[in-house]
Amino acid sequence: MTVEANTLRVSGKSQKDEEKKSVNGYLHRGIARRSFERRFSLTDHMKVTGAHLDNGMLQVELAHEVPEAAKPRTIEIGTGLPSLAHRKNGR
User: Fold this and answer.
1) Which of 2, 38, 57, 61 could pair with 50 in a Cys bridge, judged by C-beta atoms 3.0 to 4.6 Å apart?
2) Model pLDDT for residues 54-81, shown as the tens digit of each residue
3) With 70 as the cut, is the pLDDT of residue 53 above it?
4) Are the C-beta atoms of residues 9 and 1 closer than 8 Å to each other?
C-alpha cells in the first residue's frame, strides 16, 4: 500500500500455491487468488494513519487533519453606531 499525490494505491500479488490438496485430497477456494491493484482518491488534508489485515479484510485508518488556516472562522456582527475608537480622521 502506498500514498502519493492524494492517491492511495492498494495492490496485492498472489503467493505460490502452497499445497493444493487437503486431507481429503481436495481444497475449495471460493475467492480467486490473483494479483490486483486498486486506487482511491484522497481529499485534501486526508492522511492514512494505519492499516491492518484481519480475517482477510484490509482495514485502512484515515484521519482528516484540517490546518487552522483552512478552518472556517466566526466573525460577530455588531449593531448600532460604530464606537469613536474605530473612527478615523474625526469623521
Assistant:
1) 61
2) 888 899 999 988 888 888 889 888 887 7
3) yes
4) yes
For the residues of 53-79, what is the DSSP string, one character each?
Answer: EETTEEEEEEEE---GGGS--------
Rounded to whole angstroms, what are the CA distances from 61 to 2, 40, 80? 13, 13, 50
Is the pLDDT confidence value at 83 over 90? no
Give the residue carrying C-alpha cell 494513519: 49
Cell 492524494 sits on residue: 6
Q: Find out whether 58 and 12 touch, Cβ atoms under 8 Å.
A: no
CA proximity to 58, closest of 7, 21, 12, 14: 12
What domains can you pick out in the chain, each with its CATH number? 2-68 (2.60.40.790)
Nearest-angstrom CA–CA distance, 65 and 8: 16
